[in-house]
Amino acid sequence: MANHVIVGGGPGGMNAIETIRGYDSEASITLICDEPTYARMALPYFISGDVSEDHVLTGDNDHFSKLGVTTKIGSRVTSVDPGANSLTLGDGSTLSYDNLLIATGSSPQKLNIPGADGDGVYNLWTIDDARKATADLNGDAEVAFIGAGFIGFIILNAVHKIGAKAHVIELDGQVLPRMLDPQGASLVDSWLDRQGVSVSTGVSVQSIDHGADGKKTLNMSDGSTISADLVIMATGITANIGFLDGTGIAMNQGILVNSRCQTNHANIYAAGDVAEGPDRSTGKNAVHAIHPTAVDHGRVAGANMAGQDIEYGGSLSMNILDVCGLQCASFGVWKEDSEEVTTVVNATRPVYRKLVWSGNILVGAIMIGPADDMSMLNDMGMVKGLIQAGTDLGAWKNHIVANPTDIRRPYVATKTASRLLENTVLGKPAAYRDYQASTASTKSWENRDLLVGSKGG
Ligand SMILES: Cc1cc2nc3c(=O)[nH]c(=O)nc-3n(C[C@H](O)[C@H](O)[C@H](O)COP(=O)(O)OP(=O)(O)OC[C@H]3O[C@@H](n4cnc5c(N)ncnc54)[C@H](O)[C@@H]3O)c2cc1C
After folding, report:
1. Residue identifier of the C-alpha nearest atom 4 of ligand 1
2. Is the beta carbon of 45 within 6 A of some atom in ligand 1?
3. Ligand 1 atom closest to Cα of 290?
4. DSSP string, 399-455
5. Segment 294-350, tens digit of pLDDT
6. 151 in contact with ligand 1, CB cutoff 6 A
7. Which pLDDT tens digit goes with each residue over 362-401?
8. Would the CB of 383 count as within 6 Å of ligand 1?
9. Which domains does the chain carry?
């Protein structure tokens, strides 16, 4: 009977567990995670009050018991010995494995400025952060965001929904520098201005003063100050690979994996934010720290750990974001200005589309438009599908270049939807997840039985 050990209970680890069990009802599976199992991408809905804390969780004792998974929640892995097929936990105990999956995710980068460690300054990366921050957050609060990237803006949207006043500070010359080009970013800037969100770009926060009344003052590089009740720091992330130093597991920005999500050690796999795996657009390896990549990696790694032979076509770089009512997305190699590009702009609506071509194939795109523009939202999905499927548009390319807002006809004519449907990660449809959040709307975090000690833990 195979002995699988999974480190990390985010979407990467959870999908691997459920995939292994789908192929093998007998194998021993142990999950080690220093946090409860949940989906970070659900945190903004908890912060805005749209869902209770329970709905962020992705498993409980009952679920793991039904799956026959031994859990060690609250435990950290401190080192791995690939030669001995064993790992060490924070309490000094060791555990052996036949197959190991490292799905330890990433952590927010710390901003090393005076006052950054004070009360009311959050990364909002964990469920624990979100619980603490929501206690301070209400419609009267003023919230300063340090960093105008994807994660910062997801949280900005949640804060905006509550009605809190927001200030965004970005060191780069534009907002969303890793998601939009300057033209797209300028539309977002004007939109945020209309929503009452102040944006300062090209400046940095030098220090945070904490007043006796809890009010914070952010001292900026240009000499100005910003006042806030809460500060959210979202200045980038790094893969959680430090505990693997000296193990011989090949790493770059993340753990290097092949198309089977396998590392340079045949029985050690990696998935999700921590993995630097094949990028379907470039053919090179890249870290795509997004939920869908973690899901795909987890399923591919899990299937191969269970003895299948599954090759992954690579993850697609994609970001889809609601910026206070303005939908923004970028896919694939949207930044490649050397390639042939089709653009359409209407700054007043505002609408922006940038389509990047390689011959007759769409390889990247930026799409921006208001949330009530249904055709834009439909086109967003179809453009993503065309890029994902690598559809050769042939003569339809000229049609799109002449009519960049008519994506539907080329999409239907090239049968892209049916090709995408056939192209599943594991060669079969995803299985139904037999886990439902409790129907109770509120549950005390402290009192919750956090899965610790379930089946053999
Ligand atoms: C607020 C927020 C909103 C987001 N929204 C979106 C979104 O809308 N769309 C999107 O695509 N992505 C979103 N993301 C990103 C997405 O959540 C991540 O890409 C995803 O969680 C990665 O999954 P993972 O399984 O690789 O890692 P994680 O979900 O980070 O899980 C890894 C787990 O392993 C644990 N761990 C780490 N080291 C150890 C160790 N040594 N021992 C034991 N356990 C360890 C971690 O504590 C963590 O619990 C969001 C992220 C945040 C924070």
Report:
1. 41
2. no
3. 19
4. HHHH-TT--HHHHHHTTHHHHHHH--TTSSPPPPP-----S-S---TTTS--STT-T
5. 999 999 999 999 999 999 999 999 999 999 999 999 999 998 767 799 999 999 889
6. yes
7. 999 999 999 888 888 899 999 999 999 999 999 999 999 9
8. no
9. 3-108+238-305 (3.50.50.60), 121-235 (3.50.50.60), 325-422 (3.30.390.30)
